[in-house]
């Protein structure tokens, strides 16, 4: 072997084959892979950035569209309200002209004896309903009745326990451990049975009997009163229907509506969906006036009640609902 063959990895002999370094090759591959990953990361970051900008632009476009839609709806609502106010002003002017021409005013309150009787019959439903127990008032009586079977069950359990103890005492010797346990339990079991017999059961029977009598009396009242309540409800519906017809007939005539009516409802119904609420509210106010004899020509519901009025009473709770209905109509038109 020559010297050059032996030292082939040195640079002294140029014809020798170069030495391959495996660690260097891995470093080159890692650098290439790292550059590739960095490039992919830049692509991902750029994509996220562009997507975020596009999403922001899209959200801004949607928000802008919503704002524009809300502005248009607000303007349309404002225009509708202004048109309604102009319509009402025109009708008020027309009324003023007709008043100056001595056009007669229709008396909506003058309904005649038939409708007044119908209103009185319809109003009876409150007094009739007050004669009946509510579900909450019946519930305690029903609970008292339900306690009686539990008292009988408690008696049966105590007697069963007593019989079991006596059975042990009758069949065991004094030296039997079960007998000692039975003797210890005898007084307690007997006392429990006596307590059920002397106190729990008699009280449950008394309460159940009283509760059953109360419920039976209420059931008897229901058989008598419910048909009357149903008739009063039908009278109520008929009263409102006939008063609605009276108001619509007055609107279609050449006569003027009374001042109390125009103060609360204007001189004509509003257009659109509010028209139905207007006629229902106005007929209910007229029903209130007819039912409770209100004749005030300026105030639709008459003078306000005293400060200490019980607003849970049917008349005043009805008045409160009507006041709210009138206020809601003012808000929808104004």
How would you describe what is shown here?
By secondary structure, the protein is mainly alpha-helical. The protein contains 8 helices and no strands. The protein is flat. The N and C termini lie far apart (117 Å). The mean pLDDT is 83.
Give short descriptive properties of this protein.
334 residues, mainly alpha, 8 helices
Topology of helices and strands:
Blueprint: H1 3-6, H2 22-100, H3 112-130, H4 135-171, H5 177-252, H6 259-265, H7 274-292, H8 314-333
Helix pairs in contact: 3-5, 4-5, 5-7, 7-8
Q: What structural category characterises the helix and strand content? A: mainly alpha
Tally of contiguous helical segments: 8
Shape descriptor: flat
* Main pleated sheet: none
**H-E order:** HHHHHHHH
Strand content: under 5%
Question: Quick gist of this model?
Answer:
This protein is mainly α.
């Amino acid at each position: 072997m020559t010297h050059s063959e032996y030292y082939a990895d040195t640079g002294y002999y140029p014809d020798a084959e170069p030495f391959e370094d495996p660690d260097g090759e891995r470093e080159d591959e890692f650098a290439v892979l790292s550059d590739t990953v960095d490039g992919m990361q830049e692509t991902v970051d750029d994509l996220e950035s562009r997507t975020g900008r596009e999403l922001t632009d899209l959200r801004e476009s949607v928000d802008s569209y919503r704002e524009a839609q809300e502005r248009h709806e607000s303007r349309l609502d404002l225009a509708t309200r202004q048109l309604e106010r102009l319509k009402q002003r025109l009708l008020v002017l027309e009324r003023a002209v007709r008043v100056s021409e001595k056009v007669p005013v229709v008396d909506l309150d003058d309904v005649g004896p038939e409708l007044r009787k119908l209103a009185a019959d319809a109003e009876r439903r409150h007094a009739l309903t007050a004669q009946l127990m509510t579900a909450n008032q019946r519930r305690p009586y029903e609970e008292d009745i339900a306690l009686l079977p539990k008292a009988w069950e408690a008696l049966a359990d105590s007697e069963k326990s007593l019989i079991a103890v006596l059975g042990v005492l009758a069949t065991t010797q004094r030296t039997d451990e079960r007998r000692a346990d039975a003797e210890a339990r005898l007084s307690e079991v007997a006392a429990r049975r006596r307590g059920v017999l002397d106190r729990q059961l008699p009280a449950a029977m008394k309460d159940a009997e009283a509760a059953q009598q109360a419920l039976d009396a209420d059931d008897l009242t229901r058989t008598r009163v419910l048909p009357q309540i149903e008739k009063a409800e039908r009278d109520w519906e008929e009263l409102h229907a006939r008063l609605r017809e009276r108001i619509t007939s007055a609107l279609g005539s050449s006569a003027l509506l009374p001042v109390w009516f125009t103060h609360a409802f204007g001189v004509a119904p509003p257009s659109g969906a509010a028209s139905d609420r207007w006629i229902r509210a106005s007929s209910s106010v007229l029903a209130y006036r007819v039912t409770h004899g209100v004749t005030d020509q300026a105030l639709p519901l008459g003078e306000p009640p005293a400060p200490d009025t019980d607003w849970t009473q049917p008349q005043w709770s009805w008045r409160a609902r009507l006041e709210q209905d009138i206020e809601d109509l003012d808000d929808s038109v104004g």
